[in-house]
Amino acid sequence: MAFLQVDGLDAWYGKTQVLFGCDITLDEGGVIAVLGANGAGKTTLLRALSGMVRRQGRIVIDGTPADQLSPEAVVRLGVAHVPEGRGTFGRLTVEENLRLAAIIRKDAAGVRRDFTRVYDYFPRLHERRSQQAGTLSGGEQQMLAIGRALMLAPKLMLLDEPSFGLAPQVRRDIFLILKDISRSSGVSMLVVEQNAALALDLASHAYLLETGRIVLSGTADSFLADDTVRRTYLGY
Amino acid sequence: MELLLQQIIAGLATGGIYACFALAVVMIYQAIDHFNFAQGEMAMFSTYVAWQLMAWGLSFWLAFGLTFVFSLVMGAFLYLVVLKPVQNASALSQIVAFIALMCIFNSLAGTIWDYSVKPFPSPFPETALFGALVTGHDLGMIAVTLIMLAGVFYFFKFSTLGLAMRAAAQNPESAQLCGVRVQMMTALGWALAAAIGSVAGMMVAYKVFLEPNMMYSIILYGFAAAIVGGLDSPAGAVAGGFLLGVVENLTGVYVPGGSELKLTFALLLIVVVLMFKPTGLFGHRVVKRV
Question: Predicted ipTM?
Fold first, then answer.
């Protein structure tokens, strides 16, 4: 059964319509990638799912209609949105950032377990736990953003360009960890990326977004085999 | 030497006033990431409410408690009705709204209670201490300030609510994505800031007397103290308040013509601190990376 079902989604950025009739299906525990150039509407798609922009259409998350919900309510369905720009709370410490992400949870034991898990994935965050998060490097802030998402104990992670602005080595590490999270905890993921090669390696299915419309969808392998995708987004 | 010590103690007593206010400034800054220029007038208005309750025959502490609650509600109400509609506007538009609020409260208090100066009682014994430089009221006021400081410090440092409030002010969007109800946090921040301000007003009014313009000079020092101490540090703000009080007092005594230059020296202190430590004496440096 689909964990996330989106039918005919329109969305607006201010007064401008950005998305036109998008359909997306994400199975429970599955990973999909949404590819597209700058300005194609990738970020708006995630923001529409989280309820942060005006949108219209059908969104069902885990059996619950979500197209009328506020962002705070969408979070409570188990959706962790790792935003563009990473959403760091610069003047809170690393540990406070993580503590904050768990405030809607009631299971203290589970929260403690997830602290351990996040610090296991990202030992750097543990080293810097009492440091102000604003002092972290870009890569570390991305780790923190993923850590915050994990602290929500999510069922669905929405990842907005997790590779953006990172050194190749850090980028690879982050994607390896995302792969492990997906495999070990069965969380569903929707990854929006400009780096198609990384995204298609992580995802099983992919969608191509062009000027607000989904123009191609299929398995990751079919994307890799597609000449246009290869030339435009993989660059070979 | 004895004179110096006495003047320092007297300075601490005045500093208590500034410290009290600086705490309210830090509270609102943590909650909305801005100054609220109407804060002094809101506190003045609350103090009038307390005065009115006492005029109706209530005891000081009962009036104090009711005024505290009134101020909580007033703060949340002001946010929801006046400031929420402009919260996405530019900083300048918001400042205009703050200044409008300031004028409204000033005129409102003058209209309801007229502009005559009214005495305001102290709940503390009025005995003079340390060679008549410090009164029981001064010590009581300092104690109240320190108790509030402890409360605010605990709230922001250890409570989940305080954490959510700081997050909501720093990065509202990201806070929402963590499930924080941002508007509620901001309303609560306004409520608490108004309530702390009201306590400051009720403590100060005994010394400066109650009138609609009672806060003009004090709020300036309160802002100054908060900036000197560090806007994100409740303890720093309180320390800044005491420091300002002492500097001001010593200037008045030791610098020729100093009593005219008190304010100048206080402002000079701000400039010097900001030159060498832009985040204030106790503030945390904010580093941003892209």
Answer: 0.89
